[in-house]
Amino acid sequence: xxxxxxxxxxxxxxxxxxxxxxxxxxxxxxxxxxxxxxxxxxxxxxxxxxxxxxxxxxxxxxxxxxxxxxxxxxxxxxxxxxxxxxxxxxxxxxxxxxxxxxxxxxxxxxxxxxxxxxxxxxxxxxxxxxxxxxxxxxxxxxxxxxxxxxxxxxxxxxxxxxxxxxxxxxxxxxxxxxxxxxxxxxxxxxxxxxxxxxxxxxxxxxxxxxxxxxxxxxxxxxxxxxxxxxxxxxxxxxxxxxxxxxxxxxxxxxxxxxxxxxxxxxxxxxxxxxxxxxxxxxxxxxxxxxxxxxxxxxxxxxxxxxxxxxxxxxxxxxxxxxxxxxxxxxxxxxxxxxxxxxxxxxxxxxxxxxxxxxxxxxxxxxxxxxxxxxxxxxxxxxxxxxxxxxxxxxxxxxxxxxxxxxxxxxxxxxxxxxxxxxxx
Amino acid sequence: xxxxxxxxxxxxxxxxxxxxxxxxxxxxxxxxxxxxxxxxxxxxxxxxxxxxxxxxxxxxxxxxxxxxxxxxxxxxxxxxxxxxxxxxxxxxxxxxxxxxxxxxxxxxxxxxxxxxxxxxxxxxxxxxxxxxxxxxxxxxxxxxxxxxxxxxxxxxxxxxxxxxxxxxxxxxxxxxxxxxxxxxxxxxxxxxxxxxxxxxxxxxxxxxxxxxxxxxxxxxxxxxxxxxxxxxxxxxxxxxxxxxxxxxxxxxxxxxxxxxxxxxxxxxxxxxxxxxxxxxxxxxxxxxxxxxxxxxxxxxxxxxxxxxxxxxxxxxxxxxxxxxxxxxxxxxxxxxxxxxxxxxxxxxxxxxxxxxxxxxxxxxxxxxxxxxxxxxxxxxxxxxxxxxxxxxxxxxxxxxxxxxxxxxxxxxxxxxxxxxxxxx
Lengths: 424, 424
Known about the structure:
The structure is a homodimer. Chain A is α/β, with parallel strands linked by helices. Chain A has helices at about 10-30, 30-50, 50-65, 70-75, 80-95, 135-145, 160-175, 195-200, 215-225, 245-260, 275-290, 300-305, 315, 335-345, 355-365; strands at about 105-110, 115-120, 125-130, 150-155, 185, 205-210, 235-240, 265-275, 295, 310, 325-330, 350, 370-375, 390-395, 400-405, 410-420. The first copy, chain A, contains 15 helices and 16 strands. In chain A, β1 and β2 (about 115-120) form a beta hairpin. In chain A, α2 runs antiparallel to α5. β16 (about 410-420) of chain A pairs parallel with β13 of chain B.
């Protein structure tokens, strides 16, 4: 069905949802070999269909340019040969990951004689709402399929033709492996009403994962009638303790800020214990200045780094996603934890210290999805954590927290094995 | 603060929420000994204050009788000496459970040199909305406290005085152990607007657990602005396969239906493979008839059990919570699974079979929070499963599924231990 043929968006989305629900039962039962074969077939189909995919992408790029999309958006939209390679490689990597579905844990005998355990099971139908990058279509579909879920994907209107081309490869891959083609559906309309309907169908969609800007995610979280796995701010901190190894502190702080500026796990605020501020800040300030990082500091920071501008209350609560760093000198670890609790976003926070008891306390007391000792916040990532891949990073506490891989797309049910036991 | 002094319910609830949030930080950090000491002190305080508690309960009972509450409601409301004993024993049992908070699992080295693991952490603030049984106040508070959460409890108006008396003991217990008294708050107003405010404060309350009738739970799920751990229907099935041991089948079916009629894990529909219907149904029908169970059957069932009345389409989708059983003869296991998928509530379903491959398939393919082989559905319970206690049974897939014990009241965060590693 093409965009122009859909007149009743609500009815269309309800049908998409019903098809997804029906397909989800077959996918939940699908064995590992079938799912892996489908992923391999999708990779193959994309590889063989590069010309068509790139033509569809060119269509999107030209329409985007005509609509006046800015250069950054057009860049994210573009499918270069290298990006198509990465998409194909991503599908093959997900095929190589262990299948989480059906794994049984904690199977123990109880005094009644029954054995009770837990079996990992799919969530059912996952809805993904995302913005311009078309590679998400393949990446998200692969993770949802491997974890036994059906998927409904709603991409940005500017990537419509690219997403539909990828969707066609995905459907052919599912069919080739004997799985229902409706196991992955890409919404075939750019009508915004489709999103409103998609987030309000608990009978068809079990969870929504929005990927995109904060505005999109806040809107969806507010209006959704189903659970949302969401990623909001990444206001990440590094705290340099007065018992830090200052060489490690220097290396980690530089990496956490400057390895990439626009990622959610980039450090946005540096906290330094007053006992070592004089020893570390001038060196760090000079190196950050050389990299072109704008520094915004508390009064004590500005005593040590005259180039820093004054940090305002708002700075402490801002995710810059840019070469800007706010710096605060704090009395001690307790003051650092207090600051993180007050201004942070519970994403990723690190302490640099050689003190065993402080490291242990920081790990326990800082309430963030990733808490680190002597490591760069930039490691907060599904690949680095060994999850294989991630569908997003959750800043929620409920269900999934931090990088969400295959396991975050599943749930567990209880299983009971007996021999005719009855309850007395 | 007493009920009559609260004029602005919204403002009062916001204050309750803020106090809970503040207390939750201290509870998350509280060590096991302090939490266990608080639970022991609460038990002691309730034990020593029995006279006051029973006086408060008498007040509720008299007001309830004057309002015309029916006998079943008044029974649930009553705190007999035995029920107070059970409440005290429950607090001591939760103190004896292992502390889930801070447990570290899966701590492994990654190629980058960092060690990545998961630490179990509290959810934060748990809101419980419940109906007449005042013992829930102590039971729920104990589980939330042991799992490191602050709690806001909103009981039924008919149990107001009883709940406030228990709340006073809980506060004294917290204070005696050096924990913040606001760690457990029982809402001190019967104004219904308090519930509306309580489920719409994501900044203060992280999850809502409603306990009560289906109407209450549906209303709260629909209106809540925070995640809800909910328990809706328990339409549980036992399927007797044609390769069942018929003595086990008889024992399990009788137990699943007749051990207790009003519980959510009671069998409501019996499915029997046509190959053994003649062998098992007459025996079961006679025994169920002797117990006074009304039988409603499909045509084939009624051929074998003339006493059965015809089952309607609605019967298959009904949670009777009463001595009524619907019975259907099905072709085989696939037809049984199809029936369960169509009419069941994904709560607890069992197969009786000696066939290895069918048992394995049933466990994998039936999408319910508990799936059993050769055991009574009545075992679906936190105590029977070894969780120690349960705060409810979740029929959701997201976050927690099946009986929810201490672990379901927690989440996990990632921890990273390094030696100055940076990302390349």
